[in-house]
What does this fold into?
Amino acid sequence: MTVRQKLAAMLMLHYPGTDPATLTEFMRTTEAGGFIVMGDNVAGSVADQAPITAALSVDPSLPPLVAVDQEGGIVSRLREDVHPAGRELAILPPEATRDAFAARAGLIQQAGITMNFGIIADTTEDPSSFIADRILGPTPEEAAARVEQAVAGERGLVMSTLKHFPGHGVTGADSHTSVPESDIPWDAWRAGPAIPFERGIAAGAEAVMFGHLRLTAVDAAPASLSARWHEILRSDLAFDGLAVTDDMLMLQQSGDPQYADPLSNAIAAVVAGNDLLVYVLAADPAVSGVDPAELLDGLEAAVADGTIPEASVDEAVTRLLDVRIALRDAG
It folds into this structure.
């Protein structure tokens, strides 16, 4: 692979619409390693979705990672998912979470989607927090008991993703409109918000999504751009799967001038240790503020001048290719 192809393999992009030919051409021209299915990519039933999803695979010998935000409840793309989610599951026995996510994963699999960005490992006892209606438990232990059941339910059907590391519940602010911040001490984080992630990892979750939030006792940078938080995930929580960003457009849309430049954000995300950078793009790059070709130009230049170590890119791409080959062989 060329350096550009490796960098493209680290991008999970979105393009609106349900026309198979258009989606195939988008994946062919960008060479993106993944695609995130949003509501505007869903035409109807799960059965209707499968041929649309299949069009995303340009090379059957190396299918892309195809993901969806399917938490159930208020965050759903597949309309046939009527299974309990969030706070509804939080008051049911943990085993109910396994049943709900097994059924949910079955729908996702039928739609031809291989990865679910659907397991909320965040926890909060603050009902005013923007994440409150989506959590699986108000306390770390209650959430952890259901997070591990959600992973068990998805096992063998779709890849599981825990989000939003290191825990959106430590702040009530919404990272879609700001870069939330918390001064929670390390010891308090490790004994509390870390637990649902740790238990989900032990249960076999294949991916962890990093949130765009600052926990300043550990690092002033958002976790998604923090090498220290990636080190904590790998070393302290013993995670060896895929590190994924939340939608990178959220950073430049946060209103924080430090993150107004999408290329600088992307470079920082790669240097921090992310394997996969997610971009929920509009059809018109002028609307998103990101053109995939220009982004790859900038990332390629950053590798050439040593800002991004090529060895780090190789490590991430090897991890991604191993997963994609395994999906191909399983399919």
